[in-house]
Amino acid sequence: MLNLSGKNALVTGIANSRSIAWGIAQQLHAAGANLGITYLPDDKGKFEKKVLELVEPLNPSLFLPCNVENEEQIQATFDAIQQKWGKLDILIHCLAFANKEDLSGDFSQTSRLGFNKALEVSTYSLIQLSGAAKPLMTEGGSILTLSYLGAVRAIPNYNVMGVAKAGLEASVRYLAAELGPQNIRVNGISAGPIRTLASSAVGGILDMIHHVEQVAPLKRTVTQLEVGSAAAFLCSDLSSGITGQILYVDAGYEIMGM
Ligand SMILES: NC(=O)c1ccc[n+]([C@@H]2O[C@H](COP(=O)([O-])OP(=O)(O)OC[C@H]3O[C@@H](n4cnc5c(N)ncnc54)[C@H](O)[C@@H]3O)[C@@H](O)[C@H]2O)c1
């Protein structure tokens, strides 16, 4: 029943084979979606080469650089979608950044610059990409972002990223309210801890994963592909009545009190 054929999906946030966005891209492809992939460009073109090699088997029909701090690259991404696809159905926002020094130690010592950087890249980018996607989602659509429990609970070391994720989850609700009349749904997945490039910057990530393995009802954490499966559901017509929600894909950890 899960069928995304005929749907154009833009996936942001693939850095390597551990990326949650890679799990999502694989599941959207398996469900028949036509993919566009963006990557974070760097001076030496390292990411471009690595990500291109990784995604080639999924035959993306668009492959573009897009640093969300760069307005021109965002504009160029959505111009390319307009020209090549004519319409967009699915937007996957799967990226975040905070300075490493802001992901451990005392939260009260977060710098103004570090706060602004984390919130701009991790939170404002959802608003910005959704605004750019809106006029292209002419047949309705689905926007999905990735959050973490640190948005609603105080998690050791998650610090400024918890504030960014709280803002992200509120943005999901405000965007869902605005875009609903256009049949554009906006949801978030709050994923359990997974070892990735981004999560390795959070102090004590391995301890977090081991704790989840002991406490979560399923006695393990989740995989990128499990998050991808839930993402495919939230981007498909099977979830046509769901918008503005945060779905926990965390092996049940969130329900536990002890
Ligand atoms: N790994 C986890 O435990 C976990 C849990 C819950 C939520 N998340 C969220 O999942 C999302 C993906 O993270 P991940 O864990 O797969 O790590 P990842 O490092 O694989 O992905 C993060 C991505 O963000 C991109 N990025 C950073 N700055 C950018 C910028 N300025 N412009 C464009 N792209 C930029 C990176 O290139 C990378 O592809 C993030 O929002 C993260 O907070 C992760």
TrEMBL record:
Record keywords, A-Z: Fatty acid biosynthesis, Fatty acid metabolism, Lipid biosynthesis, Lipid metabolism, NAD, Oxidoreductase
Ligand binding (substrate): A98
Alphabetical list of InterPro entries matching this protein: Enoyl-ACP_Rdtase_NADH, NAD(P)-bd_dom_sf, SDR_fam
UniProt key word Repeat: no
EC number, UniProt record: 1.3.1.9
Swiss-Prot/TrEMBL GO biological process terms: fatty acid biosynthetic process
Pathway terms, separated by semicolons: Lipid metabolism; fatty acid biosynthesis
Entries under Pfam families matching the protein: adh_short_C2
Enzyme active site: Y148, Y158
GO molecular function, one term: enoyl-[acyl-carrier-protein] reductase (NADH) activity
Entry similarity comment: Belongs to the short-chain dehydrogenases/reductases (SDR) family. FabI subfamily.
Protein name per UniProt: Enoyl-[acyl-carrier-protein] reductase [NADH]
Gene name for this UniProt entry: fabI
